[in-house]
């Protein structure tokens, strides 16, 4: 199976559908759109040129070459056509069911999205920290993360599945309603932030947070 990437687009509310159309024209056609909200302060949002705290979060599946070419284009030729403000970054996937992978490869193939010559793996010095915490605790999690250097994050509403197994494993009662806090940070800040969040908001705290991180391959700031 060809290497696959997850493209994460965090955009101003209402811009997700337009970006999906742009991606489809560039042979990236498998998407999941979520509603989220930003956690950055108004000062940081002004610095980054971000308008409101309400966000569209678009998750897109693509082959790794198609993902790299799309983000390269968003950083150059497609920047004006995107007409969006926000952040787009890619994460390498270690596994994906074959039907979804074949569909992504098919869309890349029909558009002849193939790199010219050997393309080296491009890695940024960034990581995505993902925190799943109880509903209403996202702001407290972000306060802890910001104390360790984080600038802001995006919150998505979610629901926890597999409660019985987790409760039996850890001997705690868990809430079903959750918030997913996604925090993009320089990799050198990843461990201090994760340790602080786990110590303050771990499974035995009020937030009952589960924390993990993923490497970021490419990143483009729009707007």
- The helix/strand class is alpha+beta
Percentage of residues in strands: 25-35%
| Major β-sheet profile | 9 strands, antiparallel
Fraction of residues in helices?
Answer: 25-40%
| Mean pLDDT value | 85
Strands in their spatial order, largest beta sheet: 8-5-7-6-2-3-1-4-9
Please tell me what the overall shape is: globular
Low-confidence stretches: 44-51, 115-121
Please report the distance between the alpha carbons of the first and last residues: 35 Å
- The radius of gyration computed from the alpha-carbon positions, rounded to a whole number of angstroms, is 18 Å
Per DSSP E runs of 2 or more residues, the count of β-strands stands at: 9
Helix and strand run: EHEHEHHEHEHEHEHEE
Number of helices: 8
Summary of the model, kept short:
This protein is an alpha+beta fold. The protein has helices at 16-25, 42-48, 64-74, 79-82, 98-110, 138-147, 163-170, 187-201; strands at 4-12, 30-38, 54-63, 86-93, 126-134, 154-159, 177-186, 210-215, 218-222. The chain has a nine-stranded antiparallel β-sheet with strand order 8-5-7-6-2-3-1-4-9.
List the helices and strands and how they pair.
Elements: E1 4-12, H1 16-25, E2 30-38, H2 42-48, E3 54-63, H3 64-74, H4 79-82, E4 86-93, H5 98-110, E5 126-134, H6 138-147, E6 154-159, H7 163-170, E7 177-186, H8 187-201, E8 210-215, E9 218-222
Antiparallel strand pairs: 1-3, 1-4, 2-3, 2-6, 4-9, 5-7, 5-8, 6-7
